[in-house]
Amino acid sequence: MNILPAIAVTSSALDAEKTRLEVIGQNIANAHTTRGPDGVPYQRRTVTFEAQLRQVAGDGGLSLASGPRVAGIVTDTTPGQAIYNPAHPHANEQGMVEMPNVNLSHEMVDLITASRSYEANLSVVRTARQMAQRALQIGR
Amino acid sequence: MIDHILARENYEIAKKLLDAAALRQEAIATNLANLETPGFKRIDLAPDFAQQLARLSGNPGSTSADSLQPKLAEDRLTQSLRPDGNNVSLDRELLEMNRNAVEYEFLTQYASDSIRRLKTAITGRVQ
User: How big is the A-B interface in CB pairs under 8 Å?
Assistant: First the structure.
């Protein structure tokens, strides 16, 4: 038996949530980047998760399931808002500047959800450690 | 003699329940890990474990505790409010985890007490 139940599962979740936090941070940081290296405004990125669940054939029960995996980082290609600002160096002939498609309120909500998930997974680690300590004290 | 004391039914069941609690912790960890995974269905101990346990406590001695086998199964009965079909609820899992940890602590104490009683019998001293 694994001495710390479920630590492997939780570590992959912490990893995935951290990737998500990083991508959200990147989106917020680039909320006003009107030119990227490719010459177009920054496009927001989203992380997709994938469950890894292994099933034991014939047994009927589930084997030890594992946590999520980052399936990929997808670029959101919806066009951003165009605002009228002829003084901007990136304005086109009509004086319109295309802004990145980052919505700050969406990103903030995502940020809070991701950090709550991260906290929940940390409390799993704490409980697992307490349980392991209890098990080691059996018979004392 | 020692074999006999340690093979007492209560002690055997405590061992099985500890296994079940450890497995349950693993299930809850998986659920919390997949809080954001689209389409994920929460897992938990298979309901037939509770049935087996009830049968065993209903008529002790008829079946041995060895036949108790905790297993995990997907919970498809819980309603999902989310459009992606994921039915994990953060509060529920955290509550269940705390409950499970207390249960685990109780069981380890119970197992310890059984061993301590045996020690007292051998040494004649209450520690």
Answer: 118
Complex ipTM, two decimals? 0.79
What distance lies between CA A66 and its chain's CA centroid? 17
- Summarised one tens digit per residue, pLDDT across range B59-114 is 766 556 677 788 888 888 888 878 888 889 999 999 999 999 999 999 999 988 88
A114's tokens: 């991701």
**Cβ contact, residue pair A9, B26, below 8 Å:** yes
A23 burial type by CB count under 10 A (0-12 exposed, 13-18 middle, 19+ buried): buried
Q: Are B40 and B93 in contact (CB under 8 A)?
A: no
Closest chain B C-alpha to A105 CA, distance in angstroms: 19
Quote the tokens at residue A29.
Answer: 């940081």
Which of B24, B35, B44, B76 to mutate to test binding with chain A, by most A CBs within 10 Å of its CB? Answer: B35
Who among A12, A120, A137 is closest to B35 (CB)? A120
- Provide the 3-class DSSP secondary structure of residue B121: helix
* Distance from C-alpha of B2 to C-alpha of B4, rounded to nearest angstrom: 5
Cα distance between residue B63 and residue B30, in whole Å: 32
Angstroms from A100 CA to nearest CA on chain B = 26
Predicted confidence (pLDDT) per residue in A114-140, tens digit? 999 999 999 999 999 999 999 888 887
Contact between A6 and B105 using a beta-carbon 8 Å cutoff: no
